[in-house]
Structure to design on (141 residues):
């Protein structure tokens, strides 16, 4: 997030595709989301990820604050609801719309086991498409 606030950074160039083929179109923005997703879920993303996602439209810190306050009350159902509730930032949100979503297909599961003084934790990343669940990664912490 701090990097995105630098006045010396050309944020528009990060949104441009750097790898383009008939099957792929990738930009640096894909590395901002979880597990290389090209979209950030505004209902679950931490503040620094929200700020980075909205840097392209401006007002990133204010939009991130408003999203976090609102989603504590009720998650956003769609991007139209986001624009309606944050109507003062409609232009900024519109510039970032292709980078944000209100639902996820990527999930993480954290498991911690404790036995006496011993403690072990793992984080499992999965993707879910309908009823199909696929494991992406397992990290032992």
């Amino acid at each position: 997030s701090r990097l995105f606030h630098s006045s010396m950074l050309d944020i528009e160039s990060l949104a441009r595709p750097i790898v383009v083929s008939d099957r792929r179109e990738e930009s640096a923005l894909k590395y901002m989301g979880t597990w290389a997703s090209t979209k950030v879920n505004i209902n679950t993303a931490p503040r620094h990820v929200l700020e980075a996602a909205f840097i392209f439209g401006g007002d990133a810190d204010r939009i991130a604050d408003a999203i976090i306050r609102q989603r504590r009350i009720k998650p956003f159902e769609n991007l139209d609801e986001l624009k309606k509730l944050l109507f003062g930032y409609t232009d900024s949100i519109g510039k970032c719309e292709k980078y944000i979503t209100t639902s996820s297909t990527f999930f993480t599961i954290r498991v911690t086991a404790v036995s006496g003084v011993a403690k072990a934790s793992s984080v499992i990343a999965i993707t879910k498409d309908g009823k199909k669940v696929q494991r992406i990664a397992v990290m032992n912490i």
User: Anything to note?
Assistant: The CA atoms of residues 59 and 90 lie 11 Å apart.
